[in-house]
Amino acid sequence: MAKFAFLALAAVLLSPALAAAQAASFSVIQGDKVVGHLISDTKGDLTTVDFDVKNNGRGPTMAETIRTGPDGLPVSWTLKGATTFGSKVEEHFSQANGRAEWRDSTGEGSAAVAAPALYVTQSGSPWSDQITAHALLKAPGMSLKVLPGGTLSLTKGETLTVQGAAGPLQVTRYDLTGVDLTPTVMLLDAQGELFADVHPNGVVIRKGYEGEETRLRTLAATWATQRFVTLEKDVAHRYGGPVRIRNVRLFDPKTSALTGPVSVLVDGKVIAAVEAVDSPPTPGETTIDGQGGTLVAGFYEMHAHLSQDIALLNLLAGITTVRDMGNDNAVLDTLIHRMDAGEIGGPHVIRSGFIEGKSPFSAQNGIVVDSQQAALDAVRWYGARDYWQIKIYNSMNPAWVPAMTQEAHRLGLRVAGHVPAFANADQMIEAGYDEITHINQFSLGWVIGPGEDTRTLFRLTALKRLPALDLQSPKVQHTLQLMVDGRKAIDPTLGIHEQLTQNRDGQVPPGAVDYLDHMPIGYRRNAMKAWVDTSAPGDDAAYRGAFDKLIDITKILHDRGVFIVFGTDTGGSFTYHRELELYQRAGMSPAEILKRATFDSARYTGQEQRMGSIEKGKLADFFLIPGDPTKALKAIKTIRMVVKDGTFYYPTEAYPRFGIAPFTTAPPVTPAG
Question: Which of these, 67, 71, 70, 97, lies nearest to 79 by C-alpha position?
Fold first, then answer.
C-alpha cells in the first residue's frame, strides 16, 4: 500500500502572521500524477482547510476549521472527514481558561495549561506543518512540548531556489521530528510560509510549482539517505576479524527443532563454522556471549514495498531479505545499490516487476501500460533486468494476462498479482499465475458480481459479504482445487486484513499489543484508529466475521498443501512478527512457521544454497533472541542482535534513533585481544 509518510503527521498552532494569508492552494503529487489538493482560506481569526487525495482508488478526505484567539493560538480546531480506507473522522480540540480539551479516535483527553498549548492532531492535513512551523520558529531552540504528549523539534537545512508560475522563489528545508518514526521534511519560504512537504514517494507543493516535483522528490531521497548513512555509521558493527557467538542454540529447519548449545563463527560475510560450545577461541576473535539464547536464520518478508525509511527497521526485526512487490523502479535500484554497498542498513531484495493497466484508478508504481503490446514490452523490460517475477495489478485488462504470463515464463520470470477488475481468481489461475497476491483478492470472486469494480475501495469493503459464504459450495471448491492441481502459491497478507477488519477507534489493535507502548506518541495514536467505517448497522459484526472467514480459507489452503508465503504489505518490521503469529490460527505450528519464514522461503526463491539456515558457508544472516520460539512464537519479538552479511546490529542501540523504547538488552561483547 503506497502511502505518503508526511500525511500521517499534523500539529496545530495558528500564528498571527497567518491572518494575512487569505488563501493558499497546494497540489498533491505521486508518481508524476496529481492525485489530490489542499486549499486553505483564512478570514480574520477563522481558517478553513479542504484536503482530498485519491490515489489507487483510495485516500483521505478532510475538512478542517481553525479559530484562533488574540494571541494567535487556536481556541478551537475541528476536523471532519474520512481516512484513506474510509473510517470516519470527527476530531476536536479547544482551550480556554487554562484548560485544553480534545477528542479523537482514541477517546477524550484534557489537561490544565498555564499558557495556551501546542496540540498535535491525529488526522490533520499537511497544512498543519505550516502551523507547526510558525510555532517552532519562534520557540527557544525551535523545540516545544506538545499535547497530548511528546516534544516537537525543527531542524534547519539548506536553502534552494525553485521555479514556477509566480517566478523564482527561495525556500529553506526544515525537518520536523518528535511525533513519528521518521522526520517530516518541509520547505518554507522567506516569510516562513509552507511551500511544500517533500518525501521520496511524493510531494504536497504550492500550486503553480508542480514542475519542481521530480527534483524535490530526488532531493528528499538524498536527504533521507544522508540521515540513514549517518545512522549506519553509528549502529552497524563490522569487527574486522572473526566473531565467535558462544552458548547459543540454533533453529534447525531440517528437524524443525533447536540444537544443543553451540558456538557460531562469522568471518566476513559468511558463517565460517558451527562448533562445539566449548571449542577454544583463536587469536583475534571478537566474542559475543549468547547466554543460552536462540539463533534463527534471517526472516523473509515476502510482501514489501521497501523504502529507506523502513529498510533498517526491517533489519532490526530480524528480516534480512524482502521481496519487493512494487516500487518506483529507479528508486528501488538506487536503494538496493546503497544497501549492498553497506552505505545504509537494510535487507537483501528480491525484485518484482510491477505492471499496471492504465485507468482512472491506476496505481503509479512500476510500469503503467495501455495495450497488450505495451504490457509485453514491460514484461521483457523486467526480464532483461534480472527481476525474479512480474506482478500484475488491479487495472490490467484481463484479456492481456495469458500473453503476459506466457512471455514471462518464456523469460524465466514467475507471475504473481492481484486479480484484475472484472475478473476472478479462476481466470487468473488458468491464465498462468504462479501466485495470487492477497487473500481478499483470491476470495472476492465468490461474493461479487461480474460488473462490480474492484479498482476502488470496494475490493476491501466487499469483504462484508464473506460471513455468509459457504466454503463447501461448488464455486469455492472449484477454485481451491485449481490451486491444488496447478501447484499455485498464495501470499495472503493476513495482518493487513486483520487491521482492516478488526481495528476500532480507541482500542489497541490486536496485532500491536506487544509493541505499541514502545512507539512514539504519534504512531500510537494513529494505530488506535479504525481503518473502515463500521457505523452502519451490522457492519461491525460483518467485518469481524469476514476476518474469521479469511482465516478459515487460509487454513483450508494450507491443509490441502497450497504453499503459503508470509508477507505484510504494511511495511514489515513489527507487523511482520504479527503476520507470523496469525498463521497459528490457520493451523500451523510455531516450528512450521519458523521453517516457512526462513528455509522454505529461501528455497521458494531459489536461494537455499546461501541462505535460509545457519550452516557453514552460508551468508551470516540471522538474529538472536533469549527464548525458544518453537514453544512460544512470541519470542521472536524480543531481538537482542541481528547479523546481515556479517554486519552486527543491536536493536537497543538503534531503536532510540526512531523514538522507539528498546525491548531488551544487547548481548555482552568482548573485543578481540
Answer: 67
Sequence letter at residue 255: T
Secondary structure E strands in 207-359 = 243-252, 257-258, 262-267, 270-276, 286-289, 294-297, 299-304, 319-324, 348-357
Is residue 344 in a domain?
no
Q: How far is CA 300 from CA 52, 296, 416, in A?
A: 36, 12, 17
Query: Which of 177, 45, 48 lies closest to 120, judged by CA?
Result: 177
Checking if the pLDDT of 57 tops 80, the result is: no
> How many Å apart are CA 650 and CA 556, to the nearest integer?
39
CA–CA gap between residue 413 and residue 606 (Å, rounded): 12
Residue 302 has pLDDT above 60, yes or no: yes
Residue 529 in domain: no
Domain that holds residue 9: 5-234
Residue 6 has pLDDT above 60, yes or no: no
Q: Does residue 281 have a cis bond before it (omega within 30 degrees)?
A: no
DSSP assignment string, 602-634: HHHTT-TTTSSS--TTSB--EEEESS-TTT-GG
Q: What is the distance between the alpha carbons of residues 320 and 318, in angstroms, rounded to a whole number?
A: 6
Which residues are within 8 A (CB) of 140 and not within 5 positions of it... i.e. 6 or more apart?
Answer: none
Strand partners, 43: 46
Q: Which of 12, 9, 184, 176 is nearest to 92 (CA)?
A: 12
Task: Classify residue 481: in a domain, yes or no.
Answer: no
Q: Are 49 and 62 in contact (CB under 8 A)?
A: yes
Output the CA–CA distances (angstroms, integers) from residue 268 to 155, 265, 495, 618, 647, in the order listed.
38, 10, 36, 11, 8
**Residue 297: helix, strand or coil by DSSP?**
strand
Counted residue by residue, the chain has a size of 673
Number of domains in the chain: 1
* Radius of gyration (C-alpha) of the chain in whole angstroms: 25
> What values do phi and psi take at 423, rounded to 5?
-135, 175
CA–CA gap between residue 247 and residue 598 (Å, rounded) = 22
In tens, the pLDDT along 170-185 reads: 999 999 998 889 899 9
DSSP string, 346-410: --EEEEEEEEEE-STT---SSEEESSHHHHHHHHHHHHTTT-SEEEE-TTS-GGGHHHHHHHHHH
* Residue at grid coordinates 469481524: 544
- Chain-centroid distance, C-alpha 619: 26
pLDDT at position 72: 67
Grid cell of 274 as nine digits: 558451527
Q: Please report how the helices 372-383 and 401-410 are oriented relative to each other, as an axis angle in degrees rounded to 10.
A: 20
* 352 close to 390: Cβ distance less than 8 angstroms: yes
Residue 155 lies in a domain: yes
Is residue 577 within 8 Å of 299, Cβ to Cβ?
no
Are 453 and 425 within 8 A, CB to CB? no
Does the structure show a pLDDT above 50 at 13? Answer: no
Given a cut of 90, whether residue 219 has pLDDT beyond it is yes
Q: How far apart are CA 288 and CA 237, in angstroms?
A: 12
At 522, is the pLDDT very low, low, confident or very high (cuts 50, 70, 90)?
A: confident
- First-to-last alpha carbon distance for the chain, in angstroms, is 49
Asked whether 403 and 415 are in contact (CB, 8 A), the reply is no
Q: Is 108 in a helix, a strand, or coil?
A: strand
Mean pLDDT over the full length of the chain: 93
How many helices and strands, by DSSP H and E, does the chain display?
Answer: 17, 33
